[in-house]
Design brief:
It contains seven helices and eleven strands. By secondary structure, the protein is of the alpha+beta class. Strands 4-11-5-10-9-8-7-6 form an eight-stranded mixed sheet, sandwiched between helices. Strands 1-2-3 form a three-stranded antiparallel sheet, with helices on both faces. Helix 4 crosses helix 5. The longest helix is centred in the N-terminal third of the chain and has 16 residues. The radius of gyration is 18 Å and the shape is globular. The N and C termini lie far apart (45 Å).
């Protein structure tokens, strides 16, 4: 499946919005510098993204802005995409930043597959059932991840799967025009391999398309096996993004 340049740009904008909804952002050096004081250890909440042409004209100023804006944190982080000027990525690698590659998948066709009956409910963003799943998923830093969920509010629709009244899995989605973004798929470890993840994805697909979406997209780490499930259901590789990160003394 080939996606148009317009589709790819829309997908990138949707991924940017997911991060921007949970943070305070300022424009510096032609880039967006994101912060969230309630999640000080999370790269997702404290990083630079939307690095566009012009930033490479004064790379020293860009690197200095990184240190200035995040000087109180123990790390620096930059998220790059297919618009990012290559000299920026080269400089980050030269300065010792580690790189984690993310895979963006998308599909125009309804997802394939069938699932057994699963109790899936729509819950509000501040639901105790949702919080319980975030706590299991994110363990000792769950409160920081929960703070990000609360900043996004109801911009995303949250689906929770239940078994015997216990919340066992979750998935969030957002429809914006003809595009839907899927995020935060998680199933409790002891409840995996029962089709719950598939059921959540199929439910989100059906609801998003009813709401007008014709293209679905999601992001996953390239080294995670979840990408195999997504591809079996019909998602195809669209492009990659990269997280450059480095530990420093605060």
């Amino acid at each position: 499946m080939q996606f148009s340049t317009t589709q790819l740009a829309w997908i990138q904008a949707m991924l940017d919005d997911y991060a921007l909804l949970a943070t305070d952002a300022v424009d510096r050096c032609g880039s967006m510098f994101l912060r969230n004081a309630d999640a000080p250890t999370r790269h997702l909440a404290n990083h630079v993204r939307r690095v566009r042409h012009g930033a490479e004209d004064d790379i020293e100023a860009f690197m200095a802005a990184l240190d200035d804006h995040y000087g109180d944190l123990g790390f620096r982080a930059v998220v790059t995409d297919w618009f990012t000027p290559p000299p920026i990525e080269a400089r980050l690698l030269a300065d010792g930043y580690e790189c984690t590659t993310n895979l963006v998948l998308a599909t125009d066709a309804p997802l394939r597959g069938a699932t057994s009956e699963v109790d899936i409910r729509t819950v509000p963003h501040d639901s105790a059932d949702l919080a319980a799943l975030v706590e299991v998923d994110e363990t000792d830093v769950w409160r920081e991840w929960w703070a990000l969920e609360q900043r996004r509010g109801d911009a995303y629709t949250h689906l929770v799967a239940f078994e015997d009244g216990l919340p066992v899995g979750r998935l969030a989605y957002r429809v914006k025009g003809v595009l839907a973004n899927l995020e935060t798929l998680f199933v409790r470890p002891e409840h995996r391999h029962r089709g719950l993840a598939t059921a959540l994805l199929l439910r989100a697909d059906a609801e998003a398309r009813t709401a007008g979406a014709t293209t679905l997209c999601l992001l996953t780490r390239a080294d995670q096996t979840a990408k195999d499930l997504y591809r079996r259901l019909g998602f195809e590789p669209a492009f990659t993004t990269r997280l450059y990160h480095r530990t420093v003394e605060a």
